[in-house]
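Here is one chain, start to finish.
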Amino acid sequence: MALPPSLRTSVTPPELELVASEQLVEIIPLVSMERTAFISGAYGPLRPPTKCKMPLWMASNLKLKKKCHIVPPTWLNVEFLQDRLTQETTLPSFSEMPFRFAEIAKILLDVAPDDLQNPEKLRTLLKDIREARQAKSREGLSKLDPNELILQNLCAMEINEIRPFFVRGMAVLTQLTREPPPVEPMDET
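Its structure:
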């Protein structure tokens, strides 16, 4: 969701992708490599065709160099996403999705579409899920109550998108519902 500069109080989508790239994913290495140490930890050794886990940023780097295949997360398939889309369009609550599903899916669709089954269908389903969830978010914000707001199962990207509106809306509601200070009688002397 594009926001005017005055409302950009949250992190940007690329920054959220950077945070999500710390998630561990499984890869199938195509080359052998010894254990490699980084600030975030040591990964490897890589021995084809044995699967191993590493951060998404490293897996993406190896994939771009054609040194591995990325094993998609269990939730990144047509059947799972179709089920979640059905839930999103038929139930009033948000369906349960991984917290960083939008960012991880975008990275994998950009970097490793050949490792995914039916990437175009996945893109379409993710877009439809996102639109259905955004509609629910807008509806939830329209019912903003200064005492309680329940939007369970929101993901990181969605929380980040509604944060500026929510903060401003709650500030206005608090101001409107605040009791005015008592008026002191004027002294007539």
